[in-house]
Structure to design on (82 residues):
């Protein structure tokens, strides 16, 4: 049986090589809480794709402080108004 520490290490390594991250994986990858991550994504214009995944390259640019191109800043999905 795999120990918990080994499982965490394997998961972290797998996350680093995935091109798209689930929201929970993105939180682990960034080492941020949900609120902090959401705020940073909004400020940098990083959005989920239609499948609900974040692009790791966009997250890397957000964390490094680079400006994202205008094509990336356009949301890929429209928010529904209640």
């Amino acid at each position: 049986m795999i120990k918990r520490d080994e499982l965490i290490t394997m998961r972290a390594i797998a996350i680093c090589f995935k091109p798209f991250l689930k929201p929970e994986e993105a939180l682990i990858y960034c080492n941020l809480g949900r609120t902090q991550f959401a705020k940073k994504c909004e400020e940098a214009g990083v959005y989920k794709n239609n499948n609900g995944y974040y692009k790791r390259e966009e997250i890397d640019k957000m964390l490094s402080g680079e400006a994202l191109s205008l094509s990336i800043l356009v949301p890929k999905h429209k928010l529904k108004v209640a």
Summary: Residues 7 and 13 are 10 Å apart (CA to CA). The mean pLDDT is 82. The first helix runs from residue 4 to 17. Strands lie at 20-21, 54-55.
